[in-house]
Design a protein that fits this description.
- The complex is a heterodimer.
- Chain A has helices at 11-23, 35-44, 63-73, 89-95, 107-119; strands spanning 3-7, 27-32, 51-54, 78-83, 99-102.
- In chain A, 45% of the residues lie in helices and 21% in strands.
- Chain A is of the alpha/beta class.
- By secondary structure, chain B is of the alpha+beta class.
- Classes of the chains: A alpha/beta, B alpha+beta.
- The A-B interface holds A 10, 12-13, 16, 20, 23, 57, 84-87, 89-90, 102-108 and B 5-6, 9-10, 12-18, 20-21, 43-44, 47, 51, 54-55, 58, 67-68, 85, 108-110, 113.
């Protein structure tokens, strides 16, 4: 079962992703509300998530910075970047994100990208 | 503005996703499904408007180098795909030119947004259920610092009279009630200007319908 870490500072968005991903058969191994919390949880996790869904605009540490730090620890980590700010796509990809979805996106598109990553 | 639009898009994300969840519920009758699909279309449309405002704010506050560059052909492909999703209940065909050599233009992701918005506006002004758009891309050496021109033609589009007779950026001053119907075209003009390019509407001469929508974009610096 593909495991996921969800990083977003909006509680209702975290709940939304969690509910839908669980309905679709994914294991949500954790959630974080900012980049720093994501880093801490990632570092402490004995089993790393297969995929991280990463928002950008968050307090304390943004998504691009958190992605860079995570990729430094594990260059093979798969990060799907999701943001309402389409202009951040290049930065996100440069930081190491394998996919970028501008909000709002269809959950089917997210699932398709998750499947692509899992099968790749 | 930037923060407000960010929160609005987050809200739209939730609305869209919950509508999708309801749509996936087995046993819904056809009428309910139609209503839900229409709601999805409007959420997407509303999101596009919000993104457009955001895009203009960003394009105006950044210099053209800061917004980055993108390959025009990639933007054409991505925008064509997105358009099909925006109008699930209409058959929209985009006859586009065969992909040419790389065409780096100034504008980064804004270029795709611009193309989606222009084509969305054209489809909304086309009274037909089946819409066919002809999209051509040509290199334009005579334009400014060299660039590319994207021409979108629709022989059936019905432009409001004031749009046929007036420059698009002053339409809302002539007839403010028109602004909501042509807001996408206004956005295109403002965004193209902010990127150092141009956007123009050329109505078919002598005909009550049909027009070409011409977007000029600058070649990305250093390319």
């Amino acid at each position: 079962m593909t495991s996921v870490l969800i990083v977003d500072d909006e509680m209702f968005i975290v709940e939304l992703y969690r509910d839908i991903l669980q309905l679709r058969g994914y294991k949500v191994m954790g959630t974080a509300f900012d980049g720093e919390e994501a880093l801490r949880k990632y570092t402490n996790a004995s089993d790393k998530p297969d995929v991280i869904i990463m928002d950008h605009r968050m307090p304390v540490m943004n998504g691009v910075q958190a992605t860079k730090e995570i990729m430094r620890m594990n260059p093979r980590q798969k990060v799907i970047f999701v943001s309402a700010d389409v202009l951040v796509e290049k930065e996100a990809r440069d930081a190491g994100a394998v996919e970028f979805l501008p909000k709002p996106f269809r959950m089917d598109d997210l699932i398709e990208k998750m499947q692509k990553i899992s099968s790749g | 503005m930037d923060l407000v639009s960010h929160d609005m898009l987050n809200d739209n994300q939730a609305i869209l996703s919950y509508l999708e969840l309801i749509l996936a519920t087995p046993g819904l009758d056809k009428r309910t499904l139609d209503y839900l699909r229409k709601a999805v279309t409007h959420v997407r449309s509303s999101s596009l408007r919000i993104q457009n405002v955001n895009t203009i704010v960003n394009a105006r506050k950044a210099n053209t180098t800061a917004v980055g560059s993108s390959d025009l052909w990639d933007a054409v492909e991505a925008s064509s795909k997105e358009l099909e999703v925006i109008f699930p209940s209409r058959k929209v065909t985009i006859r586009r030119a065969q992909r040419g050599a790389k065409a780096p233009v100034t504008g980064g992701n804004i270029v795709k947004e611009l193309l989606v918005t222009i084509m969305e506006s054209v489809v909304k002004l086309d009274p037909g259920t089946d819409v066919v758009l002809d999209l051509k891309v040509s290199e334009d050496p005579g334009y400014g610092k060299r660039g590319w021109t994207v021409t979108i033609e629709d022989p059936r589009v019905k432009l409001p009279a004031v749009v046929r007779d007036t420059d698009i950026d002053s339409v809302h001053t002539k007839d403010s009630s028109l602004a909501p119907r042509v807001s996408g075209l206004l956005f295109a003009k403002m965004a193209a200007d902010a990127l150092g390019g141009d956007f123009d509407i050329q109505p078919s001469s002598g005909a009550a319908k049909g027009a070409s929508f011409v977007l000029k974009l600058r070649r990305a610096e250093g390319q």
